[in-house]
Specification:
Blueprint: E1 5-9, H1 21-30, E2 35-42, H2 61-74, E3 80-88, H3 94-102, E4 108-112, H4 132-149, E5 155-156, H5 169-172, H6 179-191, E6 195-199, H7 214-222, E7 228-231, H8 244-254, E8 258-263, E9 266-271
Parallel strand pairs: 1-2, 2-3, 3-4, 4-5, 5-6, 6-7
Antiparallel strand pairs: 8-9
Length: 272
Amino acid sequence: MPILADLHMHSSYSTDSNAPMEEMILSAINKGLRTICFTEHIDLDFPETPDFPAGAFNLNPDAFLYELLGYKSKYADKIEVLFGLECGMQPHLSRENAKIIKEHEYDFILGSVHLIDGKDPYYPSFFESISEEEALRKYLEDTYRNIRVFGNFDSLGHMDYIIRYCKKMDQTYEYAKYKDIIDKILEHLIDREKALELNTGSLRKGMKECNPCFDVLKRFHELGGEHVTIGSDAHTPADIAYGFDKAAELLTACGYKYYTVYSGRIPMQQKL
């Protein structure tokens, strides 16, 4: 397996995971990984949902760091364990998110969009008043607005994430239909030397493409994008490094020769 770093995973410090941190680490070691990064959720102002109360995705970073440092030392001869965040971006939270990030010395920050106008597309009710095509465009437009007002992240997480919750779009979604807004996002990332995440989480949900899809990855490379981080988005030990063989094949087919690992917020390219 040429990809040996998983830079997107969650333990029980994220509300939507019950996985003990040590079990995640041991699974990563057993799978032959050299580096992992816990990117626990910090999603301020997250609304109440059928599954979670309002504010469920706040985080206690001190407790998270304390436990991580213990395991980082314990398993230092077997694996590199990095300290990260998956920061839920919303335009009105840019200053507060930046303040939280500055309070600790993180290795890696994923910037992700999970909400559209404060609503969670995970739930079918979201699509009652909007078509899937309109929702995807709105999601991409919101992503572009977020990355213009908030720049304290290293890699843009699961760029076309909303596809996971569309019933038809996994089969009909084409980069060409959204080229205008997608290219704006990619060009902005490149201009500011940000990475794009290749997220394999959609594959274990039975979808045909990663997030983002092949054509978007290829376009990022064509435009001059150099940094791609790889993340399984695992919330359980079994899902760590899921689909990484396919991810390596996709990157190679797009023309990439390296993937990127961050440590201390500094990008380091690893050969495929």
